[in-house]
Structure formats: structure tokens, C-alpha cells
Amino acid sequence: MNLFEEISDFPINILPGDGIVNYYGAIFSQKESDFYYDYLFNQIPWENDEAIIYGKLIVTKRKVAWFGEKAFEYTYSNRTKYAKLWTPELLELKQKCEEVSGETYNSCLLNLYHDGSEGMAYHSDSEKDLKKHGAIASVTFGAERKFLFKHKVTKEKVEIFLEKGSLLVMKGTTQDNWLHRLPPTTKVKTPRVNLTFRTIEE
Ligand SMILES: O=C(O)CCC(=O)C(=O)O
Ligand SMILES: [Fe+2]
Questions:
Q1: For a pocket test of ligand 1, which of 49, 118, 120 has the largest count of ligand atoms closer than 8 A to its C-beta?
Q2: Looking at ligand 1, which atom is closest to the CA of residue 145?
Q3: For 32-65, what is each residue's pLDDT tens digit?
Q4: Which fold has domain 12-198?
Q5: Rounded to whole angstroms, how far apart are CA atoms 47 and 63?
Q6: ipTM for the assembly
Q7: Mean pLDDT by 10 residues, the chain (202 residues)
């Protein structure tokens, strides 16, 4: 926690309890956001995400990439992957998130949604490779989309609009008690890039 957070009410916890989700709004300027969006969209080696669901191989339209400080082995939807090593730009983004959130990260999952028809179903980020109760920093570039949390027991929902260049941090017991989702929408016609910085337990 930095000094500013200790002496102010910013950033507020958008959850009513059972976890902490801090929304910082845009932490990158318009110019920085445009630069990183172009870089990420064009330079990241995007791959289709694959999952085995009920024994069938499902290939998503959404694209993914996985980076880290080491070639971490990471199991996700029954598939084992290896992280690529940080690029200078991803390292800059990671450092900015660390500075603002007062947390550290050693890896990043990147998602590319081509338009509003692509989203992500309710899930929590609690894979066994991730540090238990570790913070997850989510950065958005490109199209702005709605993001939803749903409590696993009470089914209470919390909605937030993720602006371009914004940072959202999920921490504490959030993943134990809440699911999150990026709902599809017909309103969005342009791509969105999302980065979630995480800590893989070694
Ligand atoms: O695209 C987003 O905003 C969230 C992505 C997400 O939840 C994830 O990668 O686990
Ligand atoms: Fe997630």
C-alpha cells in the first residue's frame, strides 16, 4: 500500500464484502493508451485459446498470449502452456501496475477480443499455479466494456465499466467468493486488449 492509499479513501473497494476490488480508472494517458494498444494488437504473437470441455476440443475466437519473467509452465483449461519472456513494453506496463497498486506480479495473461461478440464466461482466477490470495491487476486498452462480478453464494452482482487505459485490481479473498465475467455486447464493434498481471507460485 502506498502513502496516498493510507491517507485517502482512494481507491474504493467496489465489492460490498468478501473480497477487495479496487478500480483506479485510467492510469495511462490517451497517448500512452493508443501507443500500447497499437503495440499489443500488432506485436503480440496472439494465439487462439483452446480448451477441452466434456472431452471436446473447443477453440475460442478470442485470442490469448502468456508472458512472464520465466518460461513458467501454466495449466489452464486442461492445457499446459509455457510463458514467453517479458518484452520491454510489457515490463513497462507491469512496473506501472506495481507502482500504482503497491503489489508485485511475475506473469501476465493477455486477451484480445476482436469485437463485442467475444467475451469471457463467469469464472474465478484461482488456478493452483497462482499464488493464493495474490493480487491480479487487470489493464484495458482499446474498446471499453462492461465487467461483472457475481457472488458465489448470494448471487449479488456488481457491475463496472472498464475504461481505456484503466487499472482494476482484484485481491484478498475475491477469487474465493466472487466470479467475474466479460459479457458479450452488440454495441462494441472494435477490439479490446486486456492484460491480467498475476503471480505464479514457484
Ligand atoms: O478481459 C477481461 O477484462 C478479463 C479477463 C479475465 O478475467 C481473465 O483473463 O481471467
Ligand atoms: Fe479472470
A1: 120
A2: 3
A3: 999 999 999 999 999 988 777 788 888 888 999 9
A4: Jelly Rolls (2.60.120)
A5: 5
A6: 0.98
A7: 62 95 97 98 92 80 94 77 95 98 97 96 90 96 98 98 98 97 98 97 88
pTM (two decimals): 0.92
Domain boundaries, the chain: 12-198
- Strands (E) across the chain are located at 20-26, 47-53, 56-68, 73-76, 79-82, 84-85, 107-113, 120-123, 136-142, 145-151, 157-162, 166-171, 178-182, 192-198
User: The C-alpha cell of 114 is what?
Assistant: 476482436
Q: Which long-range contacts (CB under 8 A, 24 or more apart) does 31-36 make?
A: 32/165, 33/141, 33/164, 33/165, 36/89, 36/93, 36/141
Tell me what pLDDT residue 1 has: 53
